[in-house]
Amino acid sequence: MNVGAEGADASVAAEPMPGSEILRVEDLRTSFFLPIGELQAVRGVSFSLDRGRSLGIVGESGSGKTVLARSIMRLNLGANVEISGSAIFEGRDLLALSRREMRRIWGTGIAMIFQDPMTSLNPMVKIGRQVTEHLRTHSGVGRQQAKRTALDLLNEVRIPEAESRINRFPHELSGGMRQRVSIASALACEPSLLFADEPTTALDVTVQHQILNLLSREQR
């Protein structure tokens, strides 16, 4: 897995054949067209990332780091947005793919850990079900195997008493635990490339260290 992150925690990661290129971004630009005019959030960004490596994207708050990651992944940025340039992932230009083709890549090919865990968690669904459904949708495993894997992942990201908390709703967990669930969900399908948007901001120092070690182990 390759890990990509932002801010102080920013980085990008991958799988087999260390040294081979997994992502190349060329002249990527993202503009929002607002009533007051055009807002250029990303201006001509270019970089490449090899498998098994991390890339840190550092900048002030509001400088476009999250927009850059969401643009590459083709995640919803709202209406009246224009993205240009190219983002070649494993030989395919993500910016040229249809939404249907992108759905086959999300989860197993590329995943993202959001700074705000509620961006990726459904407040109306128990956390265990969210992780297991993610596994079943993207990996095709059976219900029981998905449940076992989900529990293993929750233990791996240091959710205390994971066996009981797997049946909790997001609002019943602390902000730090919600972030750990979000990380577990992102890692569930072993993506080749992982974007991490300040993934440890809501965690205490000890858990930050544990999560960063986990992400480091996942790089290959």
TrEMBL record:
One of its GO terms (cellular component) is plasma membrane. This is ABC transporter domain-containing protein. Signal peptide: none annotated. Pfam families: ABC_tran. CDD domains: ABC_NikE_OppD_transporters. Keywords: ATP-binding, Cell membrane, Membrane, Nucleotide-binding, Transport. It is a peripheral membrane protein. PROSITE patterns: ABC_TRANSPORTER_1, ABC_TRANSPORTER_2. The keyword Nucleotide-binding applies. Residues 23-220 form the ABC transporter domain. Its main location: membrane. The lineage of its organism: unclassified sequences, metagenomes, ecological metagenomes. One of its GO terms (molecular function) is ATP hydrolysis activity. It is found in: Cell membrane.
